[in-house]
Amino acid sequence: MKKTLLLGMLTAAALGFTGCQNSVNTIENADKQMTPNVIRDTRFVTDGFLRDRLALTRIVTSETSHGLLQAQVEAVNVRTGTLDQLWSSATDENPYKIRYKFTWFDEGGMEVESIMSDWQDATVIPGETVYLRSVAPNRNCKDFRVSIREAE
């Protein structure tokens, strides 16, 4: 009797865990037609917890038709396992909410003020890839910095 009850409880728990999954599966073209301008990056990480949840995979830049530099950061929510999902659901962190901002600099390294330099909100479902994007406020912008933090 105890074995049957224990087996029933374990089965119910296993089904409950799989029911907590709220993640994203993706499919894409294996034969890419694009040629992105991927740039090397330097990272300064002060929040290891955020780093372990959101993997920054690459930064791509290009120029708009108006001659403005634009940048895009590709980030993946890597919290996809059953235990991660259970913990995220229990702590009300699913979907995951982040804030980010781009700071633009001129060729002399001086910050260029812009209304786009305010913090922007993004929601990331487990397993999802998001693209954080910004366009330079003027043609004098030659570089940028991206800051990312957990939303409060």
Structural notes for this entry:
The protein is of the alpha+beta class. It has three helices and eight strands. It has helices at residues 2-19, 48-51, 82-90, and strands at 37-39, 54-63, 69-77, 96-106, 111-112, 120-124, 129-135, 141-150. The strands form two sheets. Strands 1-2-3-7 form a four-stranded antiparallel β-sheet, with no helix packed on it. Strands 4, 5, 6 and 8 form a four-stranded antiparallel β-sheet that branches. Strand 2 and strand 3 (69-77) form a beta hairpin. The chain is globular and about 45 Å long. The protein starts with a helix and ends with a strand. The relative contact order is 0.21.
Write the layout of secondary structure elements.
Elements (H helix, E strand, L loop, with lengths): L1 H18 L17 E3 L8 H4 L2 E10 L5 E9 L4 H9 L5 E11 L4 E2 L7 E5 L4 E7 L5 E10 L2
What is the tally of helical segments?
3
Which structural class do you get from the secondary structure elements?
alpha+beta
**Proportion of β residues?**
35-45%
The largest sheet, given as strand count, sense and whether it forms a barrel, is: 4 strands, antiparallel
Low-confidence stretches: 14-19
The chain-level mean pLDDT equals 78
Distance between the termini: 48 Å
Give a quick precis of the structure.
The chain contains three helices and eight strands; from the N terminus they run H-E-H-E-E-H-E-E-E-E-E.
Distinctive features:
152 residues; alpha+beta; four-stranded antiparallel sheet; 20% helix; globular
